[in-house]
Specification:
The structure holds two protein chains of two kinds. Chain A is an all-alpha fold. Chain A has three domains: 2-56, no CATH class; 61-138, Rna Polymerase Sigma Factor, Chain: A, CATH 1.10.1740; 167-239, Winged helix-like DNA-binding domain superfamily/Winged helix DNA-binding domain (Arc Repressor Mutant, subunit A). Chain A has eleven helices and no strands. Chain A is extended. The termini of chain A are far apart. By secondary structure, chain B is an all-alpha fold. Chain B has one domain. Helix content of chain B is 81%, strand content 0%. The chains are: A mainly alpha, B mainly alpha. Chains A and B meet through helix 3, helix 4, helix 7, helix 8 and helix 9 of A and helix 1, helix 3 and helix 4 of B.
């Protein structure tokens, strides 16, 4: 806040001085029509764009594998459930991305763009194996604020949550991880994407919002649903 | 007073960020009174632990071998161009 005020004062002084110079000089000068506040705003958006292009959205291909490889791999793994196929999909995606590098518009982030390519590769993969997949299975729409599966109209639980058994003993068992993976695969595509990015790959809230073009409220809603669904799935398949 | 639906929403949100003070107080009040929602917050913590662990336990990461293989293929592709 103090910095903001300081900058405002500084800009206003500049503006004032410049106008005095214009008034004092005999040579007619273009007056400065742009308000200094606007100038700062322009500079800020410019910086943002610069960071988007130069920082996060590096078109240097070597970094793609480093930064996004794990994420692409885990996303693919949830869909195809086979490590080798998932690895191949990552490779195919990155190869396609290199060829299509010039078509990348800076409207989205690299990660979103790569995930888009991966989804097409997944559809191709399922087609090859004779499984008909609707694009809607991979790219879903917002389903609104519908939590009727979990809550009654008066906002009470339909099934009351019970405490899970001791986590440490669960984590020791292979069976648990198999079920956990199944449950993740069963999430709606958007929920799975956001949950993977946030909880498993530890992405920050801001990055999630930027990468998936979501508002913070969207993220809460998606995470809430994802967690409710996962809890229910774990309860049915693991606890009971 | 919050109902369970709202409370569970806040509890989920609280896992990701600090809640505004009044919402936090409302949530805590609800949790004192409601056993189901307390259990839900425990489930959330369980889920978080499991997710953190799954990166290694579920092999949600490319193996070094696969990483090298892909990197080499990509290099080959770039050399062609």
């Amino acid at each position: 806040m103090p910095v903001y005020i300081f900058m405002n004062v500084q800009a206003a002084t500049l503006y004032y001085n410049r106008n005095r110079v214009i008034a004092a000089s005999s040579v007619p000068m273009e007056p400065w029509y742009v308000h200094p506040g606007r100038l700062r705003q322009t500079a800020a958006t410019f910086l943002d764009k610069y960071h988007m292009i130069a920082g996060n959205n590096d078109l240097n291909i070597q970094t793609w594998l480093e930064e996004h490889g794990d994420y692409l791999f885990s996303y693919g793994l949830l869909r195809v459930k086979d490590t080798h196929v998932a690895e191949d999909l990552v490779q195919e995606t990155l190869l396609a991305a290199i060829s299509a590098k010039n078509t990348f518009s800076h409207q989205s982030t690299i990660r979103t763009w790569l995930i888009g390519i991966l989804k097409h590769k997944l559809i191709d993969h399922f087609r090859r194996h004779g499984r008909e997949v609707a694009v809607g299975d991979l790219i879903d729409q917002d389903e609104g604020d519908n939590l009727d599966n979990f809550f009654r109209a008066n906002g009470r639980w339909i099934e009351k949550p019970e405490a899970f058994p001791n986590p440490e003993s669960a984590f020791q068992q292979k069976e648990f991880w198999k079920i956990f993976q199944e449950c993740l695969s069963g999430l709606k595509p958007k929920q799975a994407e956001v949950f993977l990015a946030k909880e498993i790959h530890g992405m920050s809230n801001e990055d999630v919002c930027k990468d998936f073009a979501l508002s913070p409220t969207n993220v809460w809603v998606i995470m809430h649903r994802a967690r409710l669904s996962l809890n229910r799935c774990l309860k049915i398949n693991w606890v009971d | 007073m919050l109902n369970c639906k709202q409370a569970s929403q806040l509890a989920s949100r609280a896992m990701d960020e600090k809640l505004p003070m009044w919402k936090n107080i409302a949530l805590k009040m609800h949790l004192i009174l409601c056993r189901s929602c307390t259990n839900f917050t425990r489930q959330l913590q369980f889920l978080r632990k499991a997710s953190r662990r799954s990166r290694t336990n579920l092999d949600f990461q490319l193996t070094d071998e696969a990483r090298h293989r892909i990197a080499n293929t990509l290099k080959g592709k770039q050399a062609d161009r």
